[in-house]
Amino acid sequence: MNDLDLDSTHSLLNAIIEAELAGVVRYTHYSLMVRGPNRIPIVDFFREQAAESLVHAQQAGEILTGLEGHPTVNIAQIQETHQHSIGALLNESLQHEKEALGLYKDLLKVVEGSSIYLEEYARGQIGQEELHTMEITKMLRDYEQ
To answer: Strand, coil or helix: what is 83?
Structure first.
C-alpha cells in the first residue's frame, strides 16, 4: 500500500460515506411516503435499503479511519422532489444507486494495483450496487408509462 494515493482514497471514502448516509435518509423518507396496494413489500424494500446504506457508510468509515483518515459528518445533498408515486420513488432510487456505483468505480480506479483489500472491497460494493440497479429496474417495469 506504499503507492496508495491516500488523499484521493480518503476523499472518495468520504464521498461514499456522504452518499450512503444520504441513502439512509432518502430510503427512510421513501418508506414513509409509499401508498397503495403494493405498500407493504415496497416499504420493506426501502427500509432494507436504508439499513444497508448505514452499513455501507460504516464500512467505508472503518476503512477510512484504518487509513488514518477522518470521516465526514456531512451527508450528500438530497433534493425533495415532492413526487411520491411508487414509480417516481423507484426512479429516484435508481439514480441514487447509479451515483453510488460511480463512486465505488472511482474508488476502484484509485486503489487498483495498490491494495488487494481495497480493490476487493470496491469490487464487492460495485457488485452490490449493480445488483440494486438491476432489482430496481425490474421493479420499475410495472410502473412504466
So the answer is: coil
pTM for this one? 0.95
CA distances from 70 to 2, 4, 121 (A): 19, 17, 19
Residue by residue, pLDDT tens for the chain (145 residues) are: 679 999 999 999 999 999 999 999 999 999 999 999 989 999 999 999 999 999 999 999 999 999 999 999 999 999 999 999 999 999 999 999 999 999 999 999 999 999 999 999 999 999 999 999 999 999 999 876 5
Listed in sequence order, the residues at least 6 apart from 12 whose beta carbon sits closer than 8 Å to its beta carbon are 103, 106, 107, 110
**Fold type of domain 6-143:** Ferritin (1.20.1260)
- Compute the distance between CA of residue 19 and CA of residue 46 in angstroms, rounded to an integer: 16
